[in-house]
Amino acid sequence: MAKIVLVTGANRGIGLEVARQLAARRLCVIVSARDPAKASAAARSIAGDVHAVQLDVTQADSVGRAARDIESRFGGVDVLINNAAILLSENRDLLETSMDDFRRTFDTNVFGALAVSQACVPGMVTRGYGRIVNVSSRAGQLSSMNDYAPAYSISKAALNALTRQLAAATSGTGVLVNSACPGWVRTDMGGRRAPRSVEEGADTIVWLATLPDEGPTGGFFSDRKRIDW
How many helices (DSSP H) and strands (DSSP E) are in the chain? Predict the structure, then answer.
């Protein structure tokens, strides 16, 4: 049977392209978005075995409802792409960025990924197979971090820490967990000046989502190569 993939924040940009590429590989793909109409429209735009689910990663009841729906309809999630993210106060420095923007950013970029993982990963462990890709960014790379978008950058560093913790928690279970940097991509978030297409940005994410059993876990990757944290 085809593996079941859940992509969060999949109604546009990199998430939509990841869903498209995985559907082309004949996986069963579930695209999610906060707005159910947008999730349905995204699913209809992709050829293959593609379905829609309403999911707001910042709302516990929404996460629980989506997980139960997927369990009932498909038997659970085999591959989780934690893609949903927001970018706030991009051009403000740390001391100018409001606490509210930090909280909102972490609610989506970190706690959202954790909540969906807690809902979906135990089933992967039980079944002995799972792939989790946390869509991160070099902005969260401690070795090169600067003053760019403090809330976003710090949240992505925290997401990388979540990757390490989740990889340790699932070690030896058949579940592989990695972070991916798609690069600066031409999306609503990245802007028109970005040098990379969504197809290029999705490539490493799709690669990690389809790793063989002997593939890496607990790593940070860009262009299919391991990079420093």
Answer: 7, 8
